[in-house]
Known about the structure:
The complex is a heterodimer of chains A (294) and B (284).
Chain A (H helix, E strand, L loop, with lengths): L1 E9 L4 E10 L4 E5 L6 H9 L5 E6 L2 E2 L4 H6 L1 E4 L10 H11 L4 H10 L15 H13 L5 E5 L7 H16 L3 E6 L2 H7 L2 E6 L2 E6 L1 H8 L3 E7 L4 H10 L4 E4 L2 E6 L6 H8 L4 E8 L11
Helix pairs in contact in A: 4-5
Chain B lengths: L3 H17 L1 H18 E3 L6 E3 L2 H34 L1 H6 L5 H33 L6 H28 L3 H30 L3 H8 L3 H13 L8 H10 L3 H26 L11
Antiparallel strand pairs in B: 1-2
Helix pairs in contact in B: 1-5, 2-3, 2-5, 3-5, 3-6, 3-7, 3-9, 5-6, 5-11, 6-7, 6-9, 6-11, 8-10, 9-11
Amino acid sequence: MIIARHLTKRYDHTTALDDVSFVIEAGEAVALWGANGAGKTTTLRCLLGVQGFEGELTVNGIQVSQNGKAARAAIGYVPQEAAFYDMTVLETLHFYARLKKVIAQRVHDVLDQVQLTAHSSKRVNMLSGGMKQRLALAVALLADPPVLVLDEPTANLDVKAQRDFIHTVQTLNRAGKTIVFSSHRLDEVIALGSRVLVLAEGKLILECLPHELAEKLGLHRWLRIWVSEQRKDDTLKLLDEQGYTFMPNGRSVYVQVSLGGKIAPLRSLELASIPVEDFDLIDGELVLQGDSHD
Amino acid sequence: MIEFANIRTIAEKELRDALRNRWFIVFTIAFAGLALALSALIHPGGTQLRMMSYSRTAASLINLVLLFVPLIGLTLGSANLASDRETGALAYLLAQPVNRFEVLLGKYVGMAGALLATLTLGFGVAGVALALQGSIQDAGGYLLTVVLAYLLALATLSLGFLMSTVAQKTTAALGGALFLWLFLVFIGDLGIMGTTVSMRMPIEAVFFIAVLNPLQMFKLASILTIQANLEVLGPAGMYATDQFGGLLLPLLLIGLLIWIVVPLLGALALFSRQEKFVLKGSAR
């Protein structure tokens, strides 16, 4: 269980966190949502006890300000991009296992758990981004901590690596681990989170369920559809007739959809016998060249 | 609570890293090669190598140590924390169940181990070569010179670590280390000489200003280990011998120990207070 009361963090002339209070129950998966500079990373660093703060913060009953080291022992941490020393995967895990006072056998267990056994003799700098994140997760799991803190863990991963990573974390959450993660990707928050804390300019401005987030914050979700060049004009005409906001972009068209309505444009195209070659979902604002049609 | 097991784990990693570092290997080979070369002289009349005695070898090695050891101590120390901070490895390490004292001390002990191993190899190669030639007289003085070189290495490593805690980037830390090396080796001496001449400073003032430099402390202490007085250094040396007598060597040893401890404590104090600076990435 994590309890934050009046958590405040000030740097020289800025207030990074301003009187933030929240409670995270054991076994929850809570997302910290917010733009860059909202205070997500600062909150996670306070949880880890690597920086001072005002207010009260406890992790599983440990006062973080009094005993940051004990708090860190109860937390497994996965940063956005873990920076490892120049060692092999196995050496890296043994190094952190010794710091966490974990028996050597545990190294092999976590290697299996994150499916890196086949890569254990590789140097860390030879790993892909996805494998490095899995290694960071393995390090985080070494001491089998009750809490996992993830700082935008999939931000630098490709789509498949994102899905694999999220699936692994979901499994850990189902097994009882408390997950606190920062993200600005709606699909990740929905897939992983059971609750969302929305931060803006260091303040906690909203607590909601993941599926309420898009509506409450007025976020846009875009469906990208690929159709053949011959049927593109028909597609644009149909979308226009049905009142969609859309944006042509090369061989694809971006269509603004609601959270529960992503299937509707696809059904309309199917009914009009326009074959869809591929599609993808994108959250947030688009930065594209082209004409928008409202 | 400080856990010595963590200090040991970090120290072993640092030692392993240093021994894999190609610059460190080059330094080790160069130092050992030069130490061996200094311990051997070509016999003027033939092809045989005539080995010098331990005390003469130690005297030759003093100048080598004065140039090499501060350079490697300062650069290794200054690059250590700064590069880890720049890559983000330090922030990741600090997010583990360790405290900053353990991290800094572990790194220091590991680097010190590597540095002392290099010196041991260099002095050891020269010492063994001399022993094989039967030149075993003055071995005690030679060993004391080795110990003094260890102290100088640790002092410059401490100064390097102090620079590493304040430098924004590795390049700045290395630049600062090179400037400090130049200052300690060359500019400091020239400055004292110039000031002495221009201000007509009394001899005791010259002596005390000189021994503020850890390199001078090492030099004076090393000369004392191979001969009974400092007359070779002129009036300042004679003043020191007259003034302190048998206490001079212990005082110089204490001075070198202070140069090890004070910068390291300074580095610890700074490092334990740093937040945003240490933790790479967006702060908010």
